[in-house]
Amino acid sequence: MTDQQPLNDKVILVTGAGGGIGRAIALEAAKAGARVVVNDLGASLGGQRESSDAAAAVVSEIERMGGTAVANGDSVADPDGARAMVRQATDAFGRLDAVLNNAGILRDGFFHKMTYEDFDAVVKVHLYGSFNTSRAAADVFRDQNAGSLIHMTSTSGLIGNLAQANYSAAKLGVAALSKSIALDLARWNVRSNCIAPFAWSRMTSSIKVDSPEQEARVNRMKAMVPEKIAPLALHLASDAGADVTGQIFAVRNNEIFLMSQSRPVRSVHAGDGWSIDAVRERAIPALRAAFVPLDVSADVFCWDPV
Question: Is 2 helix (H, G, I), strand (E, B) or coil?
């Protein structure tokens, strides 16, 4: 690690960093000069605790390559756990410069079969988890008059996907949360951005393969390694990214996208107000050409990644 590293002396908390995208970001952050808090609950894909070794294993990898890191096993879904991991960062390293909200679970199922428990668990980790860690970090960032929050959203929420009502709702909520944070904390030079990552990881390994088309899609995803997400994430965490806030990006292999955010696309007006009949006869026909189709993410990102 040299003085020329883009994250030299920065302290970064990465949640869900025991594997996949989180692990890749934690390792790359350390290579770029950051001191890293590696958080992982050691849970299964569905959120059941399995092992306490995941975070420690990544810390060992970082230390073997000459970096500095500490392990944390708290749950992002627990506000006390989120406060504990932020406190661990400041206790160990004296400050905290960025939080990458990456922790997540999946409990997929079609909406008419989804239980309250499966909806609640996924929203708690993704949306409440992002709130909990961001809220805990906000006090530190305000005192420092600087800080960066990077949240992992998903095209499942931004565009849509089958059998993921819980995950999609949480991930679209994360995008709205990020925008609100960016607005509320701008006066303290705190920025907040989202990334929708395309990468093969434990989260995407649960995709059902029930057709040749799905098999081909999964094979394309397997070529998109988690390390491809790290450069954008770590730029947003660096001082060089200090002028970027309130944005939603997507990363797919070697492509970086800026995603749109909801804005009016077409309007109709009735000077004397609308009746039910007028809506049927005039408003809907005039607006229909701009209706959003029932796309899923794969319909929109339908070309092979490069």
Answer: coil
Tell me if 75 sits within 8 A of 55, measured CB to CB: no
| Beta-carbon contacts of residue 271 (< 8 Å; ≥ 6 apart) | none
Helix (H, G, I), strand (E, B) or coil at 85: helix
Cα 252 to Cα 68, 144, 193: the distances in Å are: 29, 33, 17
Residue 68: CB atoms within 10 A of its CB come to 16
> Which residues of the chain, if any, have pLDDT below 50?
1-2
Task: At 129, list the tokens.
Answer: 């988890």
Closest C-alpha among 264, 266, 263, 270 to residue 287: 266
- Among this protein's residues, is 116 annotated catalytic? no
- Taking phi over 0 as left and psi of -120 to 50 as alpha, with beta for the rest, 237 belongs to alpha
Q: Residues 174, 156: contact at Cβ < 8 Å?
A: no
Residue 85 CA to its chain's centroid (Å): 18
Task: Write the single-letter amino acid at 269.
Answer: H
Query: CATH second-level architecture of 11-261?
Result: 3-Layer(aba) Sandwich (3.40)
Helix (H, G, I), strand (E, B) or coil at 233: helix
**What is the model's pLDDT at position 167?**
98
Q: How far apart are CA 269 and CA 272, in angstroms?
A: 9
The answer to whether residues 167 and 157 touch, using CB atoms and an 8 Å cutoff, is yes
CA atoms within 13 A on the CB side of 164: 25
Is residue 209 within 8 A of residue 215, CB to CB? The reply is yes
Structure tokens at 98: 């960025």
The residue from 93, 119, 141, 167 that is catalytic is 167
